[in-house]
Design brief:
The structure holds two protein chains of two kinds. Chain A is an alpha/beta fold. Chain A has helices at 35-46, 66-81, 99-105, 118-127; strands at 10-16, 20-29, 53-57, 61-64, 85-89, 112-115. Classes of the chains: A alpha/beta, B alpha+beta.
Chain lengths: 130, 144
């Protein structure tokens, strides 16, 4: 596991119906990923705008640092500033991995939901629109 | 209990060169360091290991090249983890991390929420950052 620490992770952006985006980040999402690949990861994250809700799936993320936490928080900021909602889903078996990100997300109060259950997260996102 | 399963009681020293400042294998080894784990458990081992990586990576980014002699001392007898970094750059690192992404602020919040106090001082030309784990709450299973 430690030998692949510089290999870039992936950012997958999908539409969830007509109202939401789903962004899945997996693998390495930290400042030490090789430069051009890191730029590509940032570009993929920053192009996600224009819908009322966002599901960020971090269940397959392996390494994240303060740089990666800040990039994801930028995305949250964009949606919350536009009166949107953001749900973050993580892996319950790795509780220490996202502590720094959680500290940042607390600042957004009830606009952000953090949990382990994707179905519950999607239901929460849809609440505003039923 | 056999001697092999007794928790470590002697202080452990970990040399953290500049190269290690931005390398995850060293961080991941530190998260599993038996003396650090024995102090209060996995959650704090992760917190300290990740904190050390961030401090050193920022020191490297903002020019504290002397952090190649950085050293971490884990002392179970007094439940203190001490990071020593040569040079005089910690002030600028602190300012940079605070303004750039507020990492130091939330690191501070995480430490305090775990019951860890920490301090920084200058001592014989070294930056000395001490994490005092004596008031630490135990791991709560599954708690993030």
């Amino acid at each position: 596991m430690t030998s692949d620490w510089k290999r870039p992770g992936t950012v997958l952006v999908e539409a969830l119906g007509e109202q939401f985006w789903r962004v899945s980040v997996s693998g390495n999402f930290h400042r030490d990923v090789e430069g051009p690949a890191r730029d590509a990861l940032v570009a993929a994250v920053r192009k996600v705008t224009g819908r009322s809700g966002l599901l960020i799936d971090l269940r397959d993320i392996v390494r994240i640092d303060s740089w990666g936490e800040w990039e994801l928080t930028y995305l949250v900021e964009v949606f919350v500033a536009a009166s949107g909602r953001v749900a973050v889903v993580s892996d319950e078996h790795r509780p220490h991995l996202l502590r720094g990100l959680l500290e940042l997300l607390r600042e957004y109060g009830e606009s952000v939901l953090y949990g382990f259950d994707e179905a519950a997260a999607r239901a929460w996102l849809a609440e505003e629109h039923t | 209990m056999s001697a092999a399963s007794d928790p470590p009681t002697a202080a452990a020293r970990v040399s953290l060169g500049l190269a290690a400042a931005r390398r995850w294998p060293e961080t991941e080894a530190l998260r599993r360091h038996e003396t650090l784990l024995a102090l209060r458990g996995e959650r704090v081992a992760w917190l300290v290991a990740d904190g050390v990586r961030e401090l050193l990576a920022n020191a490297a980014t903002y020019g504290a090249l002397t952090c190649e002699a950085a050293e971490l001392v884990i002392d179970p007898a007094v439940a203190v983890v001490t990071l020593r970094i040569q040079g005089n750059e910690f002030d600028s690192v602190q300012a940079a991390t605070s303004s750039a992404n507020r990492w130091l602020h939330r690191f501070d919040r995480m430490l305090r929420s775990d019951g860890v106090s920490w301090s920084w001082r200058r001592e014989q030309g070294m930056n000395v950052i001490e994490f005092r784990l004596t008031g630490l709450r135990p791991d709560r299973g599954g708690d993030a």
